Amino acid sequence: MVSRNTPTRFAVFSLVAGTLILAAKMFAWWLTGSAAILADALESVVNVIAAAVAVFATHVAAQPLDADHPYGHGKVELLSAAFEGGAIAAAALGILWSGGRALLWPPGLRHLDIGMGVSVAAAAANAGLGLLLLRAGKVHNSEALRADGQHVLSDVWTSVGALAGVALAWGTGVERLDGTAAVLTGLALAWHGVAILRRAMDGLMDAEDPEFVARVRAAFEHARVPGVHGLHRVRAIRSGTFVHVDAHIRVPGDWTVQQAHAVGTALEEAMKRETGITGEFALHMDPWSPPPHASVQ
Questions:
Q1: How far apart are CA 174 and CA 154, in angstroms?
Q2: CB contact set of 163 (below 8 Å; sequence gap of 6+)
Q3: What SS3 string covers 194-214?
Q4: Which helix (H) or strand (E) holds 245?
């Protein structure tokens, strides 16, 4: 049974749409024999595999917190993105091999008018799908949908490059331009796959997000709790839509534990509302003594 959570529904739609687009591209390759169009179709194979993985990842990520996973299951989406980046890089190697063969031994192009028309239609469908997935990934904070959307949009540029190569080969009669377009497509695809893989690895290793840290600091300044100051050592762990933030604050050393706890809890809730995160803040209290004759603000 398909999960009812929204990111999973988008992932299922991506899988179905990607399969239909792949079928169209394979038909265009069968018609034309073009290495560039084959390169475009090979990337769509990765799209379909990645969409299938995204269905699983978004379903698992939507599961609630439990005793074994106190920060939730959201990091599975980063694993999905890492897999997609690796798969894209692997597809790039296959495309480079296919393009190299076409450079050495041109396959002989045919039925380019119909084949290019099918490819244009497939590229347009991919553009719509990619924009939809990127928007859904942003709205639902889903790294799996973001990675899928980025890949699908990169596939559009792959299609544009492939079609340009085929058009040049068709117009000039130099069939090796078809193989050249395939090789350039493979190089661009390899770069894109490595970029997705790097982003996913940064997330898995909890790399610092300066923009988010700035939001936390701004939320602290906006709260302005009397007696509390000096927010420092801000760190965040992301797990899908769940974010755990821990930081240190300075409070007067003569406050009671109960007083510091009450103020800290109120500040955590205020910062949570201000940043709009789904998750938790954990503030560590550092004792602080104001300079003589200074008032506590």
A1: 27
A2: 36, 116, 119, 120, 123
A3: HHHHHHHHHHHCCCCCHHHHH
A4: strand 242-252
Dihedral angle of Cα 251, 254, 259, 263, to the nearest 10 degrees: -10
Q: Which residues of 32-57 are buried (b: 16+ CB within 10 A; e: fewer)?
A: bbbbbbbbbbbbbbbbbbbbbbbbbb
Average pLDDT value for residue range 36-46: 82
- Residue 33: is its pLDDT beyond 90? no
Mean pLDDT, residues 262-282 taken together = 86
pLDDT in tens, 181-211: 888 888 888 887 888 888 888 888 877 888 8
- Whole-number Å distance between alpha carbons of 3 and 12: 10
Tokens 């409070």 sit at which residue?
251
Residue ranges of domains in the chain, CATH in brackets: 6-204 (1.20.1510.10), 210-288 (3.30.70.1350)
Taking phi first (over 0 means left), then psi (-120 to 50 degrees means alpha), and beta for anything else, what does residue 226 get?
beta
pTM passes above 0.70? no
